[in-house]
Amino acid sequence: MASDTISVELAAHPLRGELIAPGDKSVSHRVAILGGLASGVTRVRNFLCSADCLNTLRAMQQLGAVVSSSAPAANFSITGVGMCPSAPADSIDCGNSGTGMRLLAGALSALPFSSRLTGDGSLSRRPMRRVIAPLEQMGACIRACGEKEGCAPLEIVGRSLRPIHYSLPMASAQVKSAILLAGLFADGETCVEQPAVTRDHTERLLRHFGVPCEESADRLSVAVRGRASLQAHDIDVPSDFSSAAFWVVAASVVPGSELTLRGVGLNPTRTALLRVLRRMGAQIELSNERGECEPTGDVTVRYAPQLHGTDLRPEEIPNLIDEVPILAVAAACAEGETNIRHADELRVKESDRISSVAANLQAMGVAVQEYDDGMTITGGSPLVGATLDSFTDHRIAMSFLVAGLRATGKTTLLRCANIDTSYPGFEGHLRQLIQ
Ligand code: S3P
């Protein structure tokens, strides 16, 4: 378990060696759901045993899927329900995970029973209308009965659904995936158009499980044909690029560092951070590139003495959305301005990540101008250690612990226990690198 308060000091020496970050969070959620729905036995390797993904796996067990290991394990087999889940006896707890709740809502809307999805305080404040609206257009019956309008708990009365063609108002892989999962049970073709290319793990995994999932040439439109049946297929989950990203930035900003991250997921819809960091002057090499369903490889990063600011392009944002907090730390260590705009989705993540990042950078003495849809960070001046809040957001906690490695004095992060939702073992890896 991650400690609730973690302190770091200016890195006394370079970060060197090798590290394996844990399994990919987005892929693990989808493997649990698709493996749980499929016919037959899927052997899963390197599943992310974090609170979030274990909740999704437990949800599939509540629906009748059988998991070979009773204790949390990265490697297990899941016997799916052959597209015919049974009604859950109790509410399904999605914990902190928007991905878990939104994707499950898609599938549950189409199944012939009632279900209730609940979440923790943070998840119960996050917008669910974005999935409810398209699912209602398909004929779903979902009531958002949270204290906040349009928020969880969600009460779902499963129904037979119609296919739709839906144009997403925001670039969201979660909403896209919820609709595609509902579409698996509808009679006909369900097509989702997105304003920008978002992570495509659902599409890749659907194909991996034998269901055709067609994309337009510009990849902005994706379609599945309903009444589909998924066939079990073994899967290796790559290490999470979003977790590796903390060390990519740490090694780029701590003088003398050279670090190799092994077996990292390199799906291009996730790795825009690498392209942006290289543009800023980072020294990053990829090797051993391989992968069947998801591209994977090793990432070697060397200290970059002369990082400089950059302007992010709008189409880059969805492909680095979870890395903005750690990119902001790199920007604070880079000479000049970094402009991050068109990123208003950050306001509805585990915390309002625009204000959390701005508050913490300012507390470390960095000039930040906040906008509704992003921020401008003026980097290059020394970071000053401070006591900071994580806003109970795992990625804010990890990003600012990395910032602490470049700050004078001591940096203390409060309310860090949530790191376990995506990166169990982060604190151990941090200690290993700085000891
Ligand atoms: C995710 C999609 C993104 C991302 C989240 C995981 C997914 O959210 O921020 O951490 O697994 O589909 P949105 O779909 O809301 O952009």
Overall description:
The chain is an alpha/beta fold and 435 residues long. It folds into 2 domains: 5-23 and 238-434, Alpha-beta prism (UDP-n-acetylglucosamine1-carboxyvinyl-transferase, Chain), CATH 3.65.10.10; 25-219, Enolpyruvate transferase domain (UDP-n-acetylglucosamine1-carboxyvinyl-transferase, Chain, Alpha-beta prism). 29% of the residues lie in helices and 24% in strands. It has 12 helices and 24 strands. The strands form 7 sheets. A 4-stranded mixed beta sheet has the order 2-15-17-16. It has a 4-stranded mixed beta sheet with strand order 4-5-3-14, with helices on one face. α9 (324-332) packs parallel to α11 (394-404). The longest helix is centred in the N-terminal third of the chain and has 13 residues, at 25-37. The protein is globular and about 60 Å long. The model has no long low-confidence stretch (mean pLDDT 97). Shikimate-3-phosphate binds at residues 26, 99, 172-174, 177, 199, 321-322, 345.
What is the approximate shape? Answer: globular
Which structural class matches the secondary elements?
alpha/beta
- Give the oligomeric state of the chains in this entry, treating copies of one chain as homo and distinct chains as hetero: single chain
Considering the protein shown, what is the CATH homologous superfamily of the largest domain? Enolpyruvate transferase domain
Alpha carbon gyration radius: 21 Å
Q: Would you identify the regions where 5 or more consecutive residues have pLDDT less than 50? A: none
How many H/I helical runs?
12
Number of domains: 2
Strand content: 15-25%
Q: Per CATH, which architecture of the largest domain?
A: Alpha-beta prism
Per the CATH scheme, the topology name of the largest domain is UDP-n-acetylglucosamine1-carboxyvinyl-transferase, Chain
Largest sheet: 4 strands, mixed
Which sequence of strands runs across the widest sheet?
A: 2-15-17-16
Number of strands: 24
Report mean pLDDT, rounded to a whole number. 97
Ligands = shikimate-3-phosphate
**What is the share of helical residues?**
25-40%
Our measurement of the CA-to-CA distance between the termini, rounded to an integer number of angstroms, reads 20 Å
